[in-house]
Amino acid sequence: MEIAVLDINGKETGRKANLSNSVFAIEPNNHAVYLDVKQYLANQRQGTHKSKERAEISGSTRKIKKQKGTGTARAGSIKSGVFRGGGRMFGPRPRSYTMKLNKTLKRLARRSALSIKAGEKSIMVLEDFNFDAPKTKNFTNVLKALDLQNKKSLFVLGDSNNNVYLSSRNLKGSEVITSSELSTYKILNASRVILLEGALEGIETNLSK
């Protein structure tokens, strides 16, 4: 699959990037995509939720009424969850939501996500660029040139570039990552995926294993 390489002004450079069919043109596996996205979202959860149960509530431990003869259900503690101010029954406890997926499945999910975006014509290839200093205005100009200012965009760099990353950090709809940070969720969550030329080799190497 060939795609035109653009510069930061949104114009074609006259070069073509050859995207591997084994990464960008496979039959998407929807179940693998579902599992990888589910794992990503689950791993974002802190799992620090906690409520007090009856053993952790402050209060008297005396039996609040006699066992029999009241005409109502027996009750042994004011800290029971059936009373106002009592502990919560079966409340949430701290836990880990971390899921484990095989590397082979995760690679399949990412290839599927990239193939979906390629099929939607939502992938762009941009020549490598850099800024002299981190400036949000510089990155905004790139977005305007590529007609991305009102769209969610994901820029994938070959190597970390601090100036480009810091220039994009204040923009809500844009994210800059390196090829090693690529995830199925981030690919599908973006309206446009912009791959820099320097990232192509790393992506294809990582996902072709």
TrEMBL record:
- InterPro entries (UniProt xref): Ribosomal_uL4, Ribosomal_uL4-like, Ribosomal_uL4_dom_sf
Question: Positions of the region Disordered?
Answer: 45-78
UniProt keyword annotations, A-Z? Ribonucleoprotein, Ribosomal protein, RNA-binding, rRNA-binding
Q: Does the keyword Ribonucleoprotein apply?
A: yes
The yes or no answer to whether the keyword RNA-binding is present is yes
Q: How does it assemble?
A: Part of the 50S ribosomal subunit.
The protein, known as: Large ribosomal subunit protein uL4
